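User: Quick sanity check before I run a bigger batch. Here is a single chain. Can you write out its predicted 3D structure?
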Amino acid sequence: MGQIRFLFALWAAKMSIPVMKLTGHNATNYPGQIAINICPDFLKYIGKPEHIISVTGTNGKTTVNNMVVDIFEASGKKVLSNRAGSNTRTGITTALIKGAKLSGKPKYDTAVFETDERSSLRIFPWVKPEYILVTNLFRDSIMRNGHPEFIGGLLTKYIPKSSKLILNGDDLISCQIAPDNKRVYYGIDKLDSDLTECINLINDIRICPKCAGKLEYDYLRYHHIGKARCKDCGFASPEYDYTGSKIDYEKQLVTISDKNGSADYEFVNDSIFNIYNMVAITALFREMGYSHETISECMKKAKVVESRYKLVEENGVKIITQLAKEKNALAISRAFDYVKDLPGDKTVILMMNCLYDEQHWSENTCWMYDCDFEFLNNDSIKEIVVSGPRARDYRLRLLFAGVSDDKIKVMPDELEGAKAVSMKKGDTVCVFHGVDSFDITQDVRKVLVERAGKLEG
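Assistant: Done. Predicted structure follows.
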């Protein structure tokens, strides 16, 4: 009876895919929802590829997942994936439906799945990855993910014992998950820009998780990311199996090494966050037996997803649109920190608006006060345009951060905000947007590109 119900669910879900595409939908979640509604234990029956890789963590999942797929494809291997970022049970179910024959058997031998860390309890009992790459664990939206130790405990409980873990050795939270599983660690050696004390508002691990003594950092990169030790009990960050070093921003190269060799890798993106992603991905492919040379060559064809970061140059003006997830204070802090260090004068547009999606809407603005808006109090940032439904909230937070009110323009309409931006050749305009405003972000980018194209002198 269960097998008959499964097949009926599979065929119904498969039939929904062309119908949804005809109506202009991407069909990344709904087919999986249909299948689960008909057959609640659908994931138990659907055929899975022999080799499954899962990418999870607080930030960077989509970027890493899609770069892993890019590298596989550049090496000539076709893999099943949920590239669009539908990373919950219904999204992964949909991907498996698309990758299955009418019998339910898989058409692929390898799959790469971005997996929402909170959804692990609904996915990992049935989908058992050979490798699980964890980018990091940070404080996330207070509406859903609570504290990172809670998420770490959830992953520890549900990660299959057979999965080998690729863990961030500079993150003392994520590197402790599932302690009985086989694992390797990746990280980045000490940099000249590193600190020994946290300057961010968020620091998720300040005391030793073993004895509650104060942690001392040999070096600290941002938030709690760095190499730490406890002088009381000897607890310390793990040694790296895969190391990023010799970061050359002028040549756009990072050296990634392990006990069996090393190679220079061209930057996919020059943010330290994405350099971590490169080291993590290299660790994964080295564990699968790929040579440094092959990984390095294939990584040249990998890209940061344009919905996350896109640079357009028009008539001497650089226009950057960058995802800064609303309600995720840490993700926005990292984006602000990156942009403040870009060369030249900058104008910033803030439109991380979380009021368009009624399902995920929240009037709670406390996350703004965990976020380092202070990074925008920088002499190279000449103007900040705040727009969208949160415009006045952003203005208030900027004032608390010490930004002069003379620098701030309040423009509730996003397109009017794009028209009001001061712009001259040689400038960089940085647009920070949220996950609920991709469409309006494209319209804002068009306005900025058109205005840049008309500049004279």
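The longest helix spans residues 2-22.

User: Great, the batch can go ahead then.
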